[in-house]
Design brief:
The chain has about 260 residues and is α+β, with helices and mostly antiparallel strands. It has two domains: about 5-55; about 65-260, Cyclophilin-like (Cyclophilin). The chain has four helices and twelve strands. The strands form two sheets. The chain has a ten-stranded antiparallel β-sheet with strand order 3-12-1-2-10-7-8-5-4-11. The protein has a two-stranded antiparallel ribbon with strand order 6-9. A hairpin with a 5-residue loop joins β4 (about 135-140) and β5. The longest helix is centred in the first third of the chain and has 51 residues, at about 5-55. About 30% of the residues are buried.
């Protein structure tokens, strides 16, 4: 016969065993849950690493670069100093003579229509700013330009100041898409897409190009210079894409601005 004291000890032992069992089951569940969470985290991390390696987060940049209608953009250095003081004859015409590795390109600039732009280019050229710089960008579809004037050769450089937009209505009234034609032979300022953001980068149009009238047109290329540009364009880009570094390297060996 089981005494009351023995029964009490038995019940206590059974209670203890049930508690231990529940604790063991709880630990197992916790370990399984942590294992699932860890696996999920590993999958997420692996996915993120794959996306970064694949350049997915750079999609917008890649799409922009691949866009055949991309604009002649530039990212000049932030304005750190004032633009040059006016030191030209605002009624005169000037010639910008580019001695390049692909041939000579000359264009005439009208100071009466674009005094700030011409004054800036004269000031920079007098300081040899453009010497030994690369024309870093060629576009062969949508718009047809060779872009130059970046001392870094990357599209990110500038003179340390910005200049005002000028002569924006020179090419006529925009069409229904808000564009005008920049004719072959035109030289215009590149910018960041914001008003008054031009620096030293400019683009040489070798074939009629539709663009919004937001790029200061300030020069006209001579016939010989246009032929040089057409030959560079004929070779295409270095990687065969529609927008990139020209396959035929174009380095401005010397840039000189003289009054006519």
């Amino acid at each position: 016969m089981v005494t009351s004291d023995q029964r009490r000890r038995q019940l206590a032992r059974e209670k203890y065993e049930r508690q231990q069992k529940r604790r063991a089951e709880a630990r197992q569940k916790s370990r399984r849950r942590l294992a699932v969470i860890g696996a999920a985290v590993a999958v997420v991390v692996a996915t993120l690493v794959g996306l970064v390696a694949g350049g997915v987060f750079d999609k917008d940049k890649k799409d922009e670069a691949a866009d055949p209608a991309a604009t002649p953009s530039a990212s000049p250095t932030p304005q750190q100093s004032p633009s040059p003081a006016m030191a030209i004859d605002a009624k005169a015409k000037y010639t910008f003579d580019l001695k390049t590795s692909a041939g000579d390109v000359k264009f005439e600039m009208d100071a009466a229509k674009t005094p700030q732009t011409v004054n800036s280019f004269k000031s920079l050229a007098d300081k040899n700013f453009f010497d030994n710089t690369k024309c870093h960008r060629l576009t062969t579809s949508g718009i047809f330009v060779l872009q130059c004037g970046d001392p870094q050769g990357t599209g990110m450089g500038g003179p340390g100041y910005t200049i005002a937009d000028e002569n924006l209505d020179a090419l006529g009234k925009p069409n229904e898409t808000g564009q005008v034609i920049y004719p072959a032979g035109t030289v215009a300022m590149a910018n960041t897409g914001k008003p008054g953001s031009g620096g030293s980068q400019f683009f040489l149009v070798y074939k009629d190009s539709p663009l919004t009238p937001t790029y200061t047109p300030f020069g006209k290329i001579d016939a010989a210079g246009l032929k040089v540009l057409e030959e560079v364009a004929k070779a295409g880009t270095a990687d065969g894409q529609q927008d990139g570094a020209p396959k035929t390297p174009v380095t401005i060996e010397k840039g000189t601005v003289t009054q006519n």
